[in-house]
Structure formats: structure tokens, C-alpha cells
Specification:
This protein has helices at 29-41, 65-72, 103-114, 175-192, 199-206, 208-214, and strands at residues 8-9, 15-20, 46-49, 55-61, 76-77, 84-89, 123-128, 142-147, 150-155, 167-173. It is α+β, with helices and mostly antiparallel strands and 228 residues long. It is globular, with a radius of gyration of 19 Å. The protein binds iron/sulfur cluster.
């Protein structure tokens, strides 16, 4: 349960966890030092790396929440409304020998664009720089996978209680077309989904044919025969 500050009530019913925002899963030494200083100052019981590449400071009493947020500054994430939980990003061409697309750059761009946007339900992105898919793109609300021909865009994946493999929406897109398509998909979702409806359930409810006729068939960079 989220506190009004954005912290998350823990299992003990008394203490809270504060989550950090770590774009593309990368941190500077200075940010790590801030994190360590805050963890020491407030004697947090545990610092946990989440599956979404974020740090969580666990075991913070309510009285300390405001000052923890203040001390963390821009590192702190406040989860007060359904929003982008994270952009999970693999190493890509920056570092990985298998990378064929720059996943970290795209992941940072997505983070920047949607960080402050509210959605009907939480939204997770997964960006992978090659078909090995270390960014788990097929089980994220919006997934991108780099190939030698460009970006594949996937929508409606979920790894939760009812897992769903996302639907491939388009392939072989340039970076800019992929970003345009992601924008149109998430706006369509924002405008048509019910409150708390994740993308997987949304796509199940409306059906891919409706998405195709109302959105995908209107986009010049998706050949009609390429829409599945
Ligand atoms: S998905 Fe490909 S580019 Fe990204 S880390 Fe895995 S192997 Fe490397």
C-alpha cells in the first residue's frame, strides 16, 4: 500500500520502503554515495535491488519519510499514482558484444518522456538491444527489441499473476518511428483503458483487431501486411 508520500508500507505494517529511480539501471558513484549515506543515516534494515533495476531502502519509520525523500533528492521515486514503474534496460551496443541496437539510449529516452505521466494502471517497459532479450521485453507492457533491421515493438505483455506474452505490433522500425509508435500506443491505452486495467487485460478486452483498425492501420511506417 502506498503512503501519501509515495513510500510503500511493508509487511510488518509499521515501516516503509522508499524506491529510487535509476534510469537505464545505471548510477553514478556520487548517487551511490548519496544512497549509502542515507542508508547509514536512517539505519535502514536492508537495501534491495528490485527486478526492475531500482534500489529499495527498506524498514523506514513513518516519521523519517519526509527527510529520507529530501536527502535522496532526485534519486527518490514517489509512487503516488499509477505511473511508469520502470524502464528495464539491457546493456545494448554501449557495452554488450551481442548488441545490435542502443537499448540504454532508448531506455533513458523512454524514462525521460514518461516519468511524470499518469496511466490507468502501472506500466513497465523492457528494452533489449538484441534478440536475446535480456530486457524481458515480451513480458512488459511495452517492449522493444533491437534487431539488425531496427526495432521490434511489443505491446501488452505481463509477467504477473496471469502472465501474458506481448503482441508484436511492428518490426524493423527506426528509433524515431519506434518512439512514435510507443507514444501512440500508450496514449491509446491512456484514453481507452479502464482504471487499474493493465495493458495485457486491456488488449484482451478490446482485441487486437480494434487496435489495428483504430490505430495501427493509420501509421505510415507500418505496412498493412506487416500488421499481425
Ligand atoms: S539483450 Fe542482447 S544486447 Fe542486451 S544484454 Fe542481452 S545479449 Fe546483450
Amino acid at each position: 500500500m502506498a503512503h501519501h508520500t509515495g513510500a510503500i508500507l511493508q509487511r510488518d505494517g509499521k515501516t516503509f520502503a522508499v524506491v529510487t529511480r535509476v534510469p537505464a539501471g545505471t548510477v553514478t558513484p556520487e548517487a551511490l554515495e548519496t544512497l549509502a549515506a542515507v542508508a547509514r543515516k536512517y539505519k535502514v534494515s536492508m537495501v534491495k535491488l528490485t527486478s526492475g533495476q531500482r534500489f529499495t531502502l527498506i524498514g523506514i519509520p513513518e516519521k523519517d519519510l519526509a527527510s529520507v525523500y529530501k536527502d535522496l533528492g532526485p534519486l527518490a521515486e514517489k509512487e503516488t499514482a499509477p505511473c511508469v514503474k520502470y524502464v528495464q534496460t539491457c546493456l545494448g551496443t554501449d557495452v554488450c558484444k551481442y548488441g545490435v541496437q542502443d537499448s540504454m539510449e532508448l531506455g533513458r529516452e523512454l524514462e525521460k518522456r514518461y516519468h511524470d505521466t499518469s496511466f490507468p494502471a502501472k506500466l513497465k517497459f523492457g528494452v533489449s538491444g538484441c534478440l536475446r532479450c535480456c530486457g524481458e521485453s515480451y513480458v512488459r507492457d511495452v517492449g522493444l527489441v533491437g534487431t539488425t533491421k531496427g526495432w521490434t515493438v511489443i505491446f501488452g505483455g505481463n509477467s504477473g499473476r496471469r502472465p501474458s506474452i506481448g503482441t508484436v505490433v511492428a518490426e524493423n522500425l527506426s528509433r524515431d518511428d519506434a518512439l512514435d509508435l510507443v507514444h501512440r500506443l500508450v496514449e491509446y491505452y491512456r484514453n481507452n483503458a479502464s482504471p487499474k486495467e493493465r495493458t495485457a487485460r486491456f488488449l484482451e478486452r478490446i482485441g487486437f483487431e480494434r487496435l489495428k483498425s483504430e490505430l495501427l492501420s493509420l501509421l505510415p511506417y507500418i505496412p498493412l501486411e506487416g500488421v499481425r
